[in-house]
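Lab notebook, bench 4. Continuing the backlog of folding jobs that were queued last week. Each job is logged with the same field layout so the records can be merged later without manual cleanup. Today's entry covers Phospholipid-transporting ATPase, a 1028-residue chain. Filled in by technician R.K.

JOB TYPE: sequence-to-structure
TARGET: Phospholipid-transporting ATPase
LENGTH: 1028
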Amino acid sequence: MTHFQGESWSWKLKQELGGILASSCIVLPVLNHSLSPQYTLWNFLPKNLFEQFRRIANFYFLIIFLVQVIVDTPTSPVTSGLPLFFVITVTAIKQGYEDWLRHRADNEVNKSNVFIVENAKQVQKESEKIKVGDIVEVKADETFPCDLIFLASSSIDGTCYVTTASLDGESNFKTHYAVRDTTVLCTDEAIDALTATIEFAVYTGMETKMALNYQGKSQKRSAVEKSINAFLIVYLCILLSKATVCTTLKYVWQSNPFNDEPWYNEKTKKERDTFKVLRMFTDFLSFMVLFNFIIPVSMYVTVEMQKFLGSFFISWDKEMYDEEIKEGALVNTSDLNEELGQVEYVFTDKTGTLTENSMEFIECCIDGHKYKDCISEVDGFSQTDGPLKYYGKAEKVIKLCLLLFCKGADSSIFPRVQQEEIQQTKVHVDRNAMDGYRTLCVAFKELTQKEYDKIDRQLNEAKMALQDREEKMAKVFEDAEADMHLIGATAVEDRLQEQSAETIEALHAAGMKVWVLTGDKMETAKSTCYACRLFQTSTELLELTAKMVGESERKEDRLHELLMEYHKKLIQDYGLIIDGSTLSLILNPSQDSSPSNYKNIFLQICLKCTAVLCCRMAPLQKAQVFNTKGSPITLSIGDGANDVSMILEAHVGIGIKGKEGRQASRNSDYAVPKFKHLRKLLLAHGHLYYVRIAHLVQYFFYKNLCFILPQFLYQFFCGFSQQPLYDAAYLTMYNICFTSLPILAYSLLEQHINIDTLTSDPQLYMKVSDNAMLQWRPFLYWTFLGAFEGLVFFFGVYFLFQNSSLEDNGKVFGNWTFGTIVFTVLVFTVTLKLALDTRFWTWMNHFVIWGSLAFYVFFSFFWGGVIWPFLKQQRMYFVFAHMLTSVSTWLAIVLLIFISLFPEILLIVLKNIREKNHQVRNKMMHYTVFLGRPLLTLAHPSRAYTAPCASPPSCSPPFPLQHQRVLSQVSTQPIASHGLLPSGLHILRQLWGTGQQGVHRVSSPPLPANTQQMLAFWGFGPGWLPGR
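JOB STATUS: finished
OUTPUT FIELD FOLLOWS
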């Protein structure tokens, strides 16, 4: 038995047929690795734990937890064990849920019902229970559950028509014929009575055509995850440095006998007999445990939750819902949300992705005469003059007997026909191709019975050949198709999908380079690329095709010459066209050539081209293209099973939910109904996801550095005794409860720029490209900010404690009060820092930010025994309540919070002033008033005009010609094509000179609205202009 994973072969029968009978010679599960379940009920726990502890932070905290259990450390094992358990549990639940969804999707196919012929009757079975040799009945509009040999059909002539849209994106019906000897077996009884010995060999498993076109899925890691690992290494180095410094300084401190063994804390005999090296190692581990919270282990679970919950916003987006198929966007994996905001290259299929894959008949040309009709499919022609008559497929076989018809592209048909017949049809073909239509030429040849028998015999011999079968069959076809007569050509339109051209333009404006990978011929693909604005009319195209390279033995030398020639034209305004055979020559050159040299030159050419078209591509070649691209972030999008390898190979794979088949969407990371939805998915969702998660990562490292730096500084004042500054409860709750929800809400809801603005202005996408927010410069800024605030927290409270008595009754605060004040300032500062960063406030943000602060206060009273008296025995009893009785403490907390946040507030104010000035400058540069003399354009409001400009620069935007005429009538000098940017009424008066200023009313035509607004801004009423 075979268990199917994913979607079965989506070959569908044409609706008019009743059904077919077929034998399941091969039962092959569809290669659906991206959605196949990763876990089973039995291996989930060990396998999931193994996967999670492969992460640096999780493994590190596991080691710390074991050290706390084994070694006598200053903190309880609970402080690291509980956060680790929380992280592991939440991550396991999330991954288990996603894997359950995969199981459910697979079961929809595996449990689908099919009919098997057994014992002269139909038996209903599940698809996964089909065995090799079963006779399967497939009815109209049903999907083939496995590879089948066609035995019989309900059609009289033993034919059936299938569509392979989910495999290759082609929605047209293809004719298949039953095995000649089994055509008459059309009933269950006849099939059951079949007794035969069939000997044949077929390709199975990974040798099948579909499997050979499949590219194994590589593990996808986001750029954010790579940055996190790099930052973790830095913080691990900081941690090791702190532990080393404290361990060293501890033994320097203890070199004084009084410090090593004071009278009130004498060592035991066991401590004296312990080897010093062992004691030093134990102390080092203790300091590692004390400072281990600088590594933000809870960041991983927050990132997982942010990705998982954030993915629902894509699925819920109503603008990405398609009314035609009644479905919206789908997220198959949430691990790559932020990669949507970092895409540099987009690789797209053509048929069914950029186009609707719906052929509409436009016109045909027969013997040079053009015919137009509303018929959508042409099967045959009866005459060349007058109205067209169409034959059905079955009727054509009878009426056109012994006539050989050949159809194909003009490049394939013209060499096979009489040369004098070509010219009158070629004119129509060229015109239709320029109009963007798909053209098809048709030729015929009359065969005598003797010629037909000869071709049939040769074809049967070629089919039976054990070696070079394809070459021998091609030779028979080549000979038979010689000296044909050209009938004419057809033109059909595969219309572009709605807004596909606008989407490609937006992707280009966002800095992305778009490649089109298609199996179509170059002429058709080229016209489509012009129609969808991949190529502009001004784009100069570089061609690397078999026609350019040639078929001679020197084709590799010719290829090298072309590559070197194009390499010299490394200018951004070029487009490239390459076909599959030339690409194969580049990627797989002969042993005599230099493969790396070919590949490197080709890569440099591709990186400089604004757009690339790859035509005549095999499915596996689409995936191989990604091996030539270098290391940028790539995205691939397609709609058919032949795009699966490409989708799996890219950093981000997008599947189109087409009308036929879901292979691409099931194997993709994300699925959208139409190509136009890619615009919002990248420019809006991708941009926001990246900004949110980048801020989340930087914020976690920042707040943990603020948390641990005071603990490190405290060791210098406690004799490096490993005394904790914070209570164990605070150590445990800081990342889990006190500071986790505000950043999670921020990472889900923040919109620093409006979604409509992000979608309409693609250039905003480039501001966050190339992982801009997780580079070393912003990382160092956050690190220095955390270090500054940690110093303020500790030394601010330290100076406060210089007054030994902080209470009215003369009582002195202890070390736990000291740590609690530092912790209180810490929690309020990092939370308010996030509030300052928030630009898009919702009720959820208010709830989690102010609620987290309120919860901290509540917990402190609870833990101190104020609310829950049973906790009065622990060391924090009434510490928080006593702390708040001091006015000095209140003032210190407020002052330290303000000092800590002051640099951030100052930067925000300066940034707002700079942005406001930039907006004013852009507004003033946009409005230009033309005067009656050539004047120098003023570019800044603070600059005063000094003298006329002899040859001033031209200004933009140009003033309308009709208004130039109006100004000429009210001015003593002709209007120049140069402008003045006024910075105030006083500057205008300087321009006209003393006593020459005046105003003239403009009656007709009216000034543009923006010009009137500008004049009103400078003090002139509506309809008025300054003049001489």
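OBSERVATION: Residues 361-374+398-493 form one domain.
SIGNED: R.K.
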